[in-house]
Amino acid sequence: MEEAVDFQRTYVEDHQGSKGLYERAVEVFPSGVTHDSRFLKPFPIYVTGALGVKKWDVDNHEYIDYWMGHGSLILGHRYPDVVEAIHGQLDRGTHYGACHELEVEWGERVVEMVPSAERVRFMASGTEATLMAIRLARSYTGKRKVIRIAGHYHGWHDAVSIGVVPPFDVPNSSGIPEELLKLTLVLPPEDLQELKKHLKRDDDVACVILEPSGGFSGAFPATGDYLRALRELTQTFGVVLIFDEVITGFRYAPGGAQEYYGVTPDLSSFAKIVAGGLPGGAVAGKREIMEYLEFKEDTQWNRNKKILHPGTFNANPMSAAAGVATLKIIAQGEVIPKANENAQSIRNTLNQVIDRHGINWCVHGEHSVVHILMNHRCPQQGACDRRRCTYDYRRIYQKDPPLLSMFRCAMLSQGVDSIGDHWWISWLHSNDVVEKTGEAFDKTIKTLKESLPDRFNTP
Ligand code: PMP
């Protein structure tokens, strides 16, 4: 561990500006950060600007960025059309407290692009979007329980704060009453028998919610067969099927994973790309379910059935401008294949590095998301195509936080910034960027192997 200390010392020495800001930040924010994923030991970097796939910190370091606005920037930072739309809107006003034309166009685009979207509502985040989707399902069915799949992430509200990380039967956050958690059932991924068993014996289930990519942006990938069977099963039992397309929306296909797999859910949640890198979310779906947001002449309906939906930043004009500009470009068809191609090139490059070092890591993933499995005992012993990892999902979701933290620091020192083990790829991560990333990864593995040899014991 002596060298590990040295390696961290170099990080500290090279990032004095960030260190200073972090020292101020810990005096105002719990743990000094404003998002749990940005927490990093010894401290995170502080960024001053970004363009394309690059960003710069207060110490004048340049980074290749694989956060891509937590997955919201498939066009890269400051894409000219998006910037122009935002500037144009800024000159007209940031918040009208009123209906406006751009929100209508934004809604029309979602309805046009997303197969299941007959009606849509905008909100401020993905968490709000899944919260609303679940509420709609409960109102529509008059039932209470939510079935969710182990390892899938749907934001941080109460109903989805269990079953996210192993062990899947305890909440991933404190502060949630046990009574509420009892209303959420966590089932294993790709297990239709288990789901059928539950639906048969429990008639209080309102919805099944899942990431149609498979959990954590496709770390344990779902299959089209599973999604189709899920559609049939939920229809048979009168349960609302919710696709959480916060990641897959406008990334897997212009109409999301539902278009890619040809499976139409009842409701879908969106965020990130839908708002073009500005804050925003959306719920879209069947008219007869979305109807629960409507005002009617019937006062009994308004009092007893209507779902309340205020929200200061719902369909904010700035987000609408960025969202419309982004969706327009995606609809033209070039962005998604290019981002997929870049991601595959990154996966190939990183796996070549892994093979050269003879370590049991694996880089996999589909579409424009890249996943890194660290110390992965692959049962396929080299026979795997390293796209879809279907090894025991409990092992896939099991992380090594100290190793991840060291990996992030070492990559930062080599000019690459990522959330750690999953990277979002834009259509601008082209070959020269991939090559540099491969070199940074190579140096990082070398450093980590030297500093933490006990973490690299091959089986
Ligand atoms: N659902 C999924 C699939 C997500 O990946 C996320 C965020 N990463 C959310 C919901 C929550 O979105 P937000 O962070 O905008 O609340």
Q: Report the portion of residues in β strands.
A: 5-15%
- Name the CATH superfamily assignment of the largest domain: Type I PLP-dependent aspartate aminotransferase-like (Major domain)
Radius of gyration: 22 Å
Which molecules other than protein and nucleic acid are bound?
A: 4'-deoxy-4'-aminopyridoxal-5'-phosphate
CATH topology of the largest domain: Aspartate Aminotransferase, domain 2
Residues in helix, %: 40-55%
The helix count comes to: 18
Under CATH at level 1, the class of the largest domain stands as Alpha Beta
* β-strand number: 15
Strand order of the biggest β-sheet: 4-11-10-9-7-5-6
Distance between the termini: 21 Å
Number of domains: 2
Structural class: alpha/beta
Main pleated sheet: 7 strands, mixed
The CATH architecture of the largest domain would be 3-Layer(aba) Sandwich
Low-pLDDT runs of 5+ residues are none
- The coarse overall form would be globular
Query: What's the overall average pLDDT, rounded?
Result: 95
Question: Would you give an account of this structure?
Answer:
By secondary structure, the chain is α/β, with parallel strands linked by helices. The chain has two domains: 2-76 and 334-451, Aspartate Aminotransferase, domain 1 (Alpha-Beta Complex), CATH 3.90.1150.10; 80-331, 3-Layer(aba) Sandwich (Aspartate Aminotransferase, domain 2). 42% of the residues lie in helices and 14% in strands. It has helices at residues 2-14, 16-25, 68-71, 80-92, 101-113, 126-141, 178-181, 192-201, 215-218, 224-236, 256-261, 287-290, 299-304, 317-331, 335-357, 393-396, 401-413, 431-451; strands spanning 47-51, 54-57, 62-65, 119-123, 145-149, 184-187, 205-210, 220-221, 240-244, 267-271, 281-285, 362-364, 369-373, 416-417, 422-424. The chain is globular. 46% of the residues are buried. The site of 4'-deoxy-4'-aminopyridoxal-5'-phosphate has 14 residues, from helix 6.
